[in-house]
Specification:
3 helices
Length: 62
């Protein structure tokens, strides 16, 4: 959503959810962390947000 003071500035809030990375593996164990998707499934959607710059709304990754 554009800022009133700086209309060219946009801010997006991103919550990719649980991902299979080293941090959750250290916290809950590698086996439990492996049930979550890896970053490679979320990164394409984040890149799409950066490239398309949607005005507002919810975006889901496939």
């Amino acid at each position: 959503m554009p800022a009133v003071e700086e209309p060219r500035v946009a801010v997006w809030w991103v919550d990719p959810g649980e991902m299979n990375t080293a941090m959750p593996a250290d916290a809950v164990g590698a086996e439990d962390a492996a049930a979550a998707p890896g970053p490679e499934t979320v990164v394409p959607t984040l890149r799409r947000l950066i490239e398309e710059r949607p005005a507002i709304g919810r975006v889901s990754h496939p």
